[in-house]
Design a protein that fits this description.
- The chain is an alpha+beta fold.
- It has one domain: CBS-domain.
- Helix content is about 45%, strand content about 20%.
- The chain is built from 6 helices and 6 strands, in the order αβαββααβαββα.
- The protein has helices spanning about 5-10, 25-35, 50-60, 70-75, 90-100, 115-140; strands at about 15, 35-40, 45-50, 75, 100-105, 110-115.
- It has a 4-stranded mixed beta sheet with strand order 1-2-3-4. Strands 5-6 form a two-stranded antiparallel sheet.
- Helix 5 (about 90-100) crosses helix 6 (about 115-140).
Length: about 140
């Protein structure tokens, strides 16, 4: 299964902030949207990604000062990306090896979406269930 299939089953778009957005504002967005990361975009270009983990790590180091920092201060710059043609297996491998939960999707240099590890796992489970159901029908002779 391709990442494009996951994107088609998600609401269109993605949540983004600018590099100047205060971390306190990012926290508000993450909480209100019930998401784990935002993309940091400047002039239509992906420049970074900022996750809950990034914020928690900063809170452990400098507590309240974290709220006054900007997205640029904490974001992962030039994040690894995938394309709509990336397979779910490849995406899962990238995310597992690199220890992150969100993967920006870029097509022809244009940011088109974001998938989470939850999206990828759900897609893999759905695919596996479909294969099991198909095999059951085949074995039962109901083809």
């Amino acid at each position: 299964m391709l990442i494009n299939t996951i994107l088609k089953n998600k609401p269109p778009g993605f949540i983004s902030v600018t590099s100047a957005t205060l971390v306190s504002g990012v926290i508000d967005i993450l909480a209100k949207k019930a998401i784990g990361a935002v993309l940091v975009v400047e002039d239509g270009e992906l420049v970074g990604i900022l996750s809950e983990r990034d914020i928690v790590r900063s809170l452990s180091r400098c507590a309240a000062q974290t709220l006054e920092l900007t997205a640029a201060d904490l974001m992962t710059r030039s994040p690894i990306t995938a394309t709509p043609e990336t397979t779910t297996e490849q995406a899962m491998e990238i995310m597992t090896e690199r220890h992150f939960r969100h993967l920006p999707i870029v097509e022809n240099g244009r940011l088109t979406g974001l998938v989470s590890i939850g999206d990828v796992v759900k897609a893999r489970i759905d695919q596996s269930q479909h294969e099991v159901d198909t095999l059951r029908v085949y074995v039962a002779g109901n083809v």
